[in-house]
Design a protein that fits this description.
Structural class: mainly alpha
Number of helices: 15
Helix content: 55-70%
Number of domains: 1
Number of strands: 2
Order of helices and strands: HHHHHEHHHHHHHHHHE
Radius of gyration: 20 Å
Shape: globular
């Protein structure tokens, strides 16, 4: 059932009627346990499907099939990203070295700098719902909107399903930093070699793609890589946009924000047949509260926390297309002042 903003219309300094510990107690203990065997099975399962799709595409080599291949393979690229997403959160396994190793194997082929993304994503989770410090799909204030160039507005509000590659080099409006430079404000000095490692791997992948294109031509790159990659980018931007951009999601400032309130400033979505393919990423509320729960336990955890959260749990009853176009048309800016604010349509 779609939860409405009226459920949250109380004083801006409100405290939630439950604690993080109460939510955790409601979740079966096994949900916090990862299995190396199970996690690896999803990783190798995705790789197997990707390999089969490449084999079929190579065998058929038909322009009637290429669009179908791009849609299917791009979706599998997105599924592979979600496996790396678990690695970044440490929910893939208890072993840091294995998380980093599989994370790079999952992310580098789809041009995601694993450590750079992992660290900026960590910032997002620590600051979700905070207008001033969130990292991903945070709102633009009215005054900031007026200062933005037409190009920034085009990228931020019109090309929302294609901005991820740009985000890697230039973060969202008002935030400085690139995911490839160890001196970027995104990172701590102690993370220098992590960033260098991922940046080197990322560049090696770009060189490999360049070499293969030189050998077999741009048409090869388009058919076997660019087509699926664009679909992957659309999936990544669509899902992250949907879970954090909604007229019913509150945003906070200053002392009114704290972790649990911010973590609840997200919304679950049902992706139908895609739910299992992209590893239950639609169960986003539980994931934001306890990011170390492996994706294969998130459905159980979600059902367990619903009675505790009550109206503070949000799940959209709209299709992902309806939800996207609703937010696309109405979610532009938030007021310059005040806390517990909501997205508003463009007024100027």
């Amino acid at each position: 059932m779609q939860q409405m903003t009226a459920n949250f219309d109380c004083e801006s300094t409100e405290k939630l009627p439950f604690t993080l510990q109460e939510i955790r107690t409601a979740i079966p203990p096994h949900c916090f346990e990862s299995s190396v065997t199970k996690s690896l099975s999803y990783f190798f399962g995705d790789l197997t499907i990707i390999s089969i799709l490449y084999a079929i595409a190579y065998t058929l080599d038909s322009w009637f099939f290429w669009p179908i291949f791009w849609l299917a393979q791009g979706t599998m690229f997105w599924a592979l990203f979600v496996v790396g997403h678990d690695c970044g959160h440490g929910s893939f396994s208890r072993y840091k070295w294995l998380n980093n190793f599989i994370g790079h194997l999952a992310h580098i082929p789809i041009l995601v700098p694993f450590h750079g993304w992992r660290i900026s994503h960590r910032t997002h989770h620590k600051n979700t719902g905070n207008i001033d410090t969130d990292e991903s799909w945070y709102p633009v204030t009215e005054s900031k909107y007026q200062e933005m160039s037409w190009l920034e507005k085009l990228a931020r509000f019109k090309l929302v399903l294609f901005v991820y590659p740009l985000y890697l080099f230039k973060r969202s409006p008002g935030r400085k930093g690139t995911h490839f430079d160890p001196k970027s404000p995104l990172f701590r000095p102690s993370e220098k070699w992590d960033i260098i490692t991922s940046t080197i791997c990322w560049n090696l992948m770009v060189v490999l793609l360049g070499f293969l294109t030189y050998q077999w031509g741009f048409l090869w790159l388009l058919k076997y890589y660019l087509g699926p990659y664009v679909v992957f980018v659309i999936w990544l931007d669509l899902v992250t946009y949907l879970h954090h951009t909604d007229p019913d999601i509150p945003w906070y400032r200053g002392e009114d924000w704290y972790f649990l309130k911010g973590a609840l400033s997200t919304i679950d979505h049902d992706y139908g047949l895609i739910n299992n393919i992209h590893h239950n990423i639609g169960t986003h509320v539980a994931h934001h509260i306890f990011l170390t729960i492996p994706h294969y336990h998130l459905k159980t955890a979600t059902e367990a926390i619903k009675p505790v959260l009550g109206d503070y749990y949000r799940k959209s009853d709209r299709s992902i297309f309806e939800a996207f176009f609703r937010s696309y048309k109405t979610c532009y800016v938030v007021p310059n002042e005040g806390s517990k604010v909501y997205y508003q349509p463009k007024k100027f």
